[in-house]
Write a structure and sequence with these properties.
The chain is mainly alpha-helical. It has three domains: 9-132, Phosphatidylinositol Transfer Protein Sec14p; 275-476, Methane Monooxygenase Hydroxylase, Chain G, domain 1; 506-669, Up-down Bundle (Methane Monooxygenase Hydroxylase, Chain G, domain 1). It is built from 18 helices and eight strands. The strands form three sheets. A four-stranded parallel sheet has the order 1-2-3-4. It has a two-stranded antiparallel sheet with strand order 5-6. It has a two-stranded antiparallel ribbon with strand order 7-8. A hairpin with a 2-residue loop joins strand 5 (207-210) and strand 6 (213-216). It is rod-shaped. The chain starts with 8 loop residues before the first strand and ends with a helix. Keywords: Repeat. Residues 1-135 form the CRAL-TRIO domain. Belongs to the SOLO family. It comes from Podilymbus podiceps (Pied-billed grebe).
Length: 678
């Protein structure tokens, strides 16, 4: 790293006691002399041969070897002699003798006298100088430089080959190129990093200060060719940038080819095995279980398609990303791939969705059909059971339940028709594109099945309706029968109540003839009401007979209702006749008594016959006696009118009037007796 006074480089050759290999030394000198630039070599070299630890013969050989290695570049050779110097005469004579032949000057000098020829600042400490030099550090840096130079040069060649091949090659050649051509033997990033570190080291250690002076660094740019490093780095960056672009283009092309390959895989599977799976699935099943099995099979098919649809989504995202950042030359191809992939996937997805909707509609249709069938079975079972209700209310409840079931069946059949028509519409819209073949035959089977189910349900519903009509008529007749029986029993109750009222409340006979006549008229109207009640009961019982004959059944209650009705009516008739007889007798009694009591005593000729008084007394006594007699019915039972106190009150009026009649009779007899005495 040091320089002589002519600015020539100083080359130091340290010799040791061991045997020195001239071949290795020659190679080393060749290497060292190849480091400086041509400009630097032109200034010549000063060679210091350190022979202090070597023998004269070795030193002589080294000096002579310099003639063969660097004869033109060497201007001065300084041989540093040891303290115990060789034979002065021999050494001086030898170099002087060879001076002309060597072509450079050779001097023998002690280490402490070397500064006469070279400045101390250009000598290392070994020769009493101040030049800082670390051979191992220089060697390590040199190795780094050599490695960088070798790797960068080799890398530049490889990158140039790759880049030039990419620029000149046709599209087909690039497609046929081997991937290894795009992989340099060393990592460009690593080489660039090494070069930058080396350049940084060179720039930092170009000059080092020492004792206020300036000394050349062993890593001087003339030795390590800092410009060469910079030039190599610039070339590397340029070629590496081009290489990165080539790699980017190849990566894009590779990615495009991979996408194209995956797109074709998706398209081929969807149009091949995927479509074939759908072609084999055309039925809708003939029951809920069959439709569910087809749905399960379809779910398996959808699961397989989902895997390919996931690939489609991923590919679509990749294509979209390439479209956003792609070159103009790739846009058309990318859009074509995207369109092809989307068309196939959407078409297949539409087929899957259509098939799923069709199976769902078929499942709903079969579910409604099964529910309707169960409703019809329940209605038929209800119609097949004979009706044996306890009363009209239970019949009404049963009839209401029957109507509700029939209405539910109507709604169920209407729902079945709607589901069936919807399913038929979907099937009619199933064109040949759906599965890639003509599906007319398969559709006809499905249509026939759907129409057959709806027709069968319609026939079953019609049969049930006919049976419901018959059952409704029968139940309505039974309701009428129970109603007639209930009303007939009610008529008996009413008639019994009329009889009871007749016996308990129809007691008074009236205070005079007019009042008694009014009571008699009211009684006749009362009897008319009873007669109407009796006739109503008879008509109801006759209606029950007709209904029983129509229903072919025996009434449970009409058998004893008619005898009860006749019995009560007979009792009422007897009681009514007794009441009429008493009222008529009372009318006769009151009329005769009132007539006698109202006649004037100045007309004695009117009472010529006393038989009238006797007749009135006889009628009164007869009426009083009748009031104490009970009403006797055909079955031997007896009933009195009112309570004893009520009867006593009624008889009291009769007795009062009989007393008046008797008093009148006595008054009429007194004048007659006086006339006879006189």
């Amino acid at each position: 790293g040091g320089k002589d006074r002519r600015s020539g480089l100083i080359l130091t050759i340290p010799l040791c006691l061991e045997q020195t290999s001239m071949d290795e030394l020659s190679v080393t000198l060749d290497y060292l002399l190849s480091i400086p630039s041509e400009k630097c070599k032109a200034r010549g070299f000063t060679v210091i041969v350190d022979g202090r630890k070597s023998q004269w013969n070795v030193v002589k050989t080294v000096v002579l070897m310099l003639q063969n290695v660097v004869p033109a570049e060497v201007s001065l050779v300084c041989v540093v002699k040891p303290d115990e110097f060789w034979d002065k005469k021999v050494t001086h004579f030898c170099f002087w003798k060879e001076k002309d032949r060597l072509g450079f000057e050779v001097i023998l000098v002690s280490a402490n006298k070397l500064t006469r020829y070279i400045e101390p600042c250009q000598l290392t400490e070994d020769f009493g100088g101040t030049l800082t030099y670390d051979h191992m550090d220089w060697l390590n840096k040199r190795l780094v430089f050599e490695k960088f130079t070798k790797e960068s040069t080799s890398l530049l060649d490889e990158l140039a080959l790759i880049n030039n091949g990419s620029d000149k090659g046709t599209q087909q050649e690039k497609e046929r190129s081997v991937d290894l051509n795009f992989l340099p033997s060393v990592d460009p990033e690593t080489v660039l990093q090494t070069g930058h570190e080396l350049l940084s080291e060179l720039q930092q250690r170009r000059f080092n200060g020492s004792d206020g002076g300036v000394s050349w660094s062993p890593m001087d740019d003339e030795l390590l060719a800092q410009p060469q490093v910079m030039k190599l780095l610039d070339s590397l960056r340029e070629q590496y940038t081009r290489y990165q672009e080539v790699c980017r283009q190849r990566s894009k092309r590779t990615q495009l080819e991979e996408i194209q390959q995956k797109v074709m895989q998706v398209v081929n599977w969807l149009e091949g095995p995927g479509s074939e799976q759908l072609r084999t699935q055309w039925g809708i099943g003939d029951s809920i279980r069959a439709s569910q099995a087809l749905q399960q099979k379809h779910e398996e098919i959808e699961s397989q398609h989902s895997e390919w649809f996931a690939v489609y989504v991923e590919l679509n995202q990749q294509i979209a990303a390439l479209l956003n950042a792609g070159d103009e030359e790739d846009l058309v191809e990318l859009k074509a791939l995207q369109q092809q992939l989307s068309d196939v996937c959407y078409r297949q997805a539409s087929q899957l969705e259509f098939r799923q909707n069709l199976l769902q509609a078929a499942l709903e249709f079969h579910s409604v059909a099964q529910d309707l069938s169960q409703q019809l079975d329940g209605l038929l079972g209800m119609l097949c059971v004979d009706v044996a209700p306890a009363d009209g209310a239970s019949i009404q409840q049963t009839l209401k339940l029957l109507e509700e079931k029939l209405k539910s069946v109507d709604l169920g059949l209407q729902g079945l028709r709607e589901k069936g028509q919807s399913l038929l519409d979907q099937i009619s819209n199933q064109a040949s594109w759906a599965y890639g073949k003509d599906v007319t035959i398969e559709n006809k089977e499905n249509v026939d099945h759907i129409q057959g189910v709806m027709e069968d349900m319609q026939l079953r519903k019609q049969r049930c309706e006919d049976m419901v009509d018959v059952r409704r008529l029968k139940m309505l007749q039974m309701v009428q029968l129970f109603k007639c029986e209930e009303d007939a029993a009610q008529a008996v109750e009413w008639l019994s109540e009329l009889l009871d009222a007749l016996l308990k409340t129809h007691i008074q006979l009236g205070d005079d003839a007019q009042e008694t006549k009014v009571l008699l008229e009211k009684h006749r109207k009362f009897v008319d009401v009873a007669q109407s009640t009796y006739d109503y009961g008879r008509q109801l019982l006759q209606a029950t007979v007709v209904l029983c004959q129509s229903l072919r059944c025996t009434s449970r209650s009409s058998g004893d209702t008619l005898p009860r009705l006749n019995r009560v009516w007979k009792q009422f008739t007897i009681t009514s006749e007794e009441r009429v007889h008493r009222l008529e007798t009372a009318v006769a009694f009151h009329s005769s008594a009132e007539k006698i009591l109202q006649e004037c005593p100045e007309q004695p000729e009117a009472f010529n016959e006393m038989e009238q008084f006797d007749e009135i007394e006889a009628v009164g006594k007869s009426l009083l006696d009748r009031l104490t007699v009970p009403v006797v019915y055909p079955d031997g039972s007896e009933q009195y009118f009112g309570s004893p106190s009520d009867m006593a009150s009624a008889a009291e009026y009769i007795r009062e009037k009989m007393k008046l009649v008797s008093l009148k009779k006595q008054q009429l007899r007194q004048p007659e007796a006086t006339t006879l005495e006189s």
